[in-house]
Amino acid sequence: MSTPFSSPGSRDVNRRTFLAWTGGIGAAVLASACSAPESTSGSSNKKVATSSKDVDTIAWDYPFTFLPVYAGVARFAKERAKEKGVSLEQTNDNGKPDVQAANLDTLIGKKVPAIVSFPMVFEAIEAQAAKALSAGIIWVTYGGTLKNQSASITFSFEEGGRQLGEDAAAWAKENLGGKGKVAFLVDDTIQLGRERTAGMIDAFTKAAPDMKVVGREQAIDPDTALTKTKAILAKHPDVNVILGITDGAAFGGYKALVESGRAEDDAKTYVGGQDGDLGSLELIKKGTFYRASAALQLRDIGNAVIDVPLAVADGKSDAEASTDVPIALVKKGDALLDEIISQYG
Amino acid sequence: MNASVSPRRLARYPLIPVVVAMAVGFEVATGSFVGSQNLLGIATDSATLAIVAIPSALLVISGYLDLSVGSTYALGAVAAGWLASEHGGSLLTCVLLSLLAGLAVGAVNGFLCCVVGLSPFIVTLGTLTAVRGLAQQFAPLPLTGFGDSFAWLGGAKVAGLPSPVAIALIVVLVAGVVLALTPVGRHIYAIGVSREAAYLSGVRVRTVPFALFLATGACAALAGAIKASVLGAVQSGTAGTGFELAVLTAVLVGGVALTGGSGTLFGVVLGVAFLGILQNGLTLVGVPTFWQQVAQGLALVVAAGLAYLAPRLEALAAVRPQPTRRATPEPAAT
Amino acid sequence: MTLQVTGLRKSFGGVHALRGVDLTIASGEVHALLGHNGAGKSTLIKALGGAFTPDGGTIEVAGRSYSGLSPRQSIDAGIAIIFQHLSLVESLSVVDNIFLGQEHRRLGLVDRGSQRAEARALLERLGATCGVDDRVGSLPMGQKQLVEIAKALSRDPVVLILDEPTAALSSHEIGALERTVRTLQQQGLAICYVTHLLGEVERLADRMTVLRDGVVHVSTSLEGKTRRDIIEAIAEPATDLPERGPVHAADPPQLQVTGLSGPGIGPIDLEVRPGEIVGLFGLIGSGRTRTLEMLFGRRPRHGSVRVGGREVARATPRAALRAGLALVPGDRAGQGLFSSLSALDNALLPAQGVLSRFGLRSGRAEREAFASLAASLAIHPSTPAAPARSFSGGNQQKLLLGRWINGILPTTVLLLDEPTQGVDVRARHEIYRVVRTIAGERRTAVLFASTDPEEIVALADRALVVHEGRIVGELSGDRLDEDALLHAVHQSESDLQEHLP
């Protein structure tokens, strides 16, 4: 009671150290999060893993845990891990390259038998991949390839974007005579985003050169996309095509159009996204103007996260073990549409 | 002082000319800024920000701070969205569950900051991280398919206004009455100016900010639920990320001092409008992504500069209309 | 002349603190600066220290003339001021404190060796017994003060100003300080010594200047002057305070305290009857403020506090206020005032709940209450919306007083800590008048604490002498005068020293 509350002075100090703490807390939370499920046996890690018996744990380092697709893939990866009798460790990088680097160092330091990592910045992770390999750890690159790796799991993001762009352009030719307005919801901040963006915009503008581009806005989530699309619609209420870098973004664009009074099945409107989020797939199935999604196949990717490192452990080479998981554009009536929807359970 | 836009009022709220200038500038540049459709769109988009910025402002005025609102927003959205999509919850039950989630976060923040006396920066930074994790753990996949009852929350018209705007107006009104017309309103300022003096004056220096933490938590969760209803979807990982900074920006740009004890709700509403118009206008003009970011940053600095100038301008404005208010002439004052 | 102040003027928001003050101090002279609270002593010292720019007049130091000083210029000109509240960093060592901000440098690094050597020489010159590496926070008050003086001397001053330097010292330390002052005087410093203890004036000073209401009332050599002469020079014309109200011994006490104790305090028993004004007199650090804060529930306590016969069970300000016990704290800026809030909010904050209807504040009732308060307390300016920080010290204090005696709250016991600290002469009299009036007319029991013996004599019906957290003496009626009060504290001081092993 003698000091029932902190003095104004100490509060000021706390405010000044605020920034310093931001990083600290994040790191502490992460550190405790990734050491929790540790259950590796020490002896088998010392030599280079050569058989699947040695790989009892796979660390999956996926930095974009906030994306819906993560939860979907994670479910299948966990199921597959159970089937194969290995335990799956996951990191939480919070979408930050420096946190990812620190988490990888931790994983390498404690010698997990296998790491599947999705590098946020590919060049930056090369050294760590080399370090992991020389420590006898199986290194699988996810979402691309590195010079130092045991194998890779790849998808062509550029290809997914291209398929969406071409489909939308073909639709515009058929339904609008190639003339109309298009807006893109893009991501310029990370490599994956830039690849998808480039594929989507290049393919569309090449195949439909007379469509007028009236917007190119940064948005990966529905909330931001809704706000941005509304602003675009204020100036161009007659936008015909909105293509999203993610299904989340395209979903926000779809909402903005509906809110502006567009009928859900308007024949002169096309919205398309990428990833294959459940909400978007259901809109496609329902027959709305949300017409296509370049869908990742969650089960295939989830399986690959477990299967590829185990294949390497069984002695397969990079070329033999590596997998390219196809990205398929799904539209109303496709059998794949129902298949992916069912994958969400 | 009687005129609605006196020089003194302009000096006190330098954001007024800024907001007007921005509106005029965007209208000239695009020709489609000032239209009831676009303005209503800005209001609807800004409503959730206002709903959280208003109670947050009260908290800052009382000398505290809640950085966890971005995650509480996500938790509120997830709670309502989960009930609506998985259990077909009605509007009422969804909103109640969402408010309950927000109150729970507010209670944790309030207990640690007001009763235990920990630094609100550290505590709410902690809950910011933890509550986000909770929301993602609870609903890792996007939630959709909410049903018509819940859709009313974000999509209905109340007295001709979109429901988010109507709810924001109610929040502004309630907070305005509390702040300006009740004894507790004075206590909020008093605690922010000097907690010790307020304590010695018999003010409930723990209960009042605790209640404000509860209100902030509840409003953040409600805002999340409203946005979930508007969108018809919730992504627990992205909903409301960075929202706490937008809230803090609106509060500070609106003239509330981070040191507590000063600020007005009118200023905060202006701050919200400033951010909403800026975001809308830059998109409308079609400024490229990263230049938008640069412009937003610069606009904030300009607003901060104006906030710095405000008391000085106010002092000037106070002198000019009343040139005869000098006290007895002092011999050779200069 | 080393220091020559001519025609110095300064006013704060219409209150004239200095109206043409002259002060001349020669090298090797100890010059006593005297006057009551609010006479202008602090303002004069702060002007010399560069706390603000005077409205007029000149300050001449060692032959150079200034119309105003910045804090930096003041130091460079050779003025050193030792305030009552020392400017030392408790967590640093003696040597680091002495050279803080003016470190000796060698090749860009702090030259610790030469600093320590100079610090040792300075401390020796002052007769200090502390070591250069001692942590300042661990030193007794007298040594801290010498460190502060050493810090001042390291800047080679020509004028040394001591602001009530003995107020917080033990009698043993006072003797040591007086010897130090004489040494420095012999070394040629011009010394300005602010005090209201006449014994010190007699023992130390060559000349004295008495300020009254912002002007020089008397400035004279002390050669051949008796204590009688000094008292006459300082004494103010009698003021027309309201008569002391009758205190009936038969009345049950309004405030009854038994066995009050806490860290470093007590056990204390005391009673204040309705309409009685009791003064708690003691030196800085004697426990006056802590005693009042314990009574009010600001600090944890043991023992019983009864107001109007009913026990105040919980030791919190809210419980005290509900029982009718209110405190006007001594630290006005830190504990009392809401500086950026309006005068009305400051005076009526706790009363706004009572004045409100259906949970909403009543603007009209509040304005009326403020107007009547402003009139009865002579608050100037009487604008309810002006922020409290724009008021003079005296009027700020009246706002704080008004917070509890506005007639809306049921205050039956009023605790005042240093009620006239930092207020001007007129406000001081008005505060005395108000306190007398509420005691006389409303029968409020008043318990106030002060380090100023004059204030105790002027205001109290009865005085309790506090030393080391206990009440060591009681004076009332004809026996209550300044000499008796000072005798009582210093007596207990030497008693204690005799008991030390």
Automatic annotation (TrEMBL), chain A:
It is found in: Cell envelope. Pfam families: Peripla_BP_4. Residues 73-316 form the Periplasmic binding protein domain. Transmembrane segments: none annotated. SUPFAM superfamilies: Periplasmic binding protein-like I. InterPro entries: Bact_Solute-Bind_Prot2, Peripla_BP_I, SBP_2_dom, TAT_signal. GO terms for molecular function: carbohydrate binding. GO terms for cellular component: outer membrane-bounded periplasmic space. Belongs to the bacterial solute-binding protein 2 family. This is Substrate-binding domain-containing protein. It comes from Nocardioides albidus. The lineage of its organism: Bacteria, Bacillati, Actinomycetota, Actinomycetes, Propionibacteriales.
From TrEMBL, chain B:
Pfam families: BPD_transp_2. One of its GO terms (molecular function) is transmembrane transporter activity. It comes from Nocardioides albidus. InterPro entries: ABC_transp_permease. It is found in: Cell membrane. The chain crosses the membrane at residues 15-35, 42-61, 67-84, 91-122, 165-189, 209-233, 245-278, 290-310. This is ABC transporter permease. The lineage of its organism: Bacteria, Bacillati, Actinomycetota, Actinomycetes, Propionibacteriales. The keyword Transmembrane helix applies. It is a multi-pass membrane protein. GO terms for cellular component: plasma membrane. Keywords: Cell membrane, Membrane, Transmembrane, Transmembrane helix. Signal peptide: none annotated.
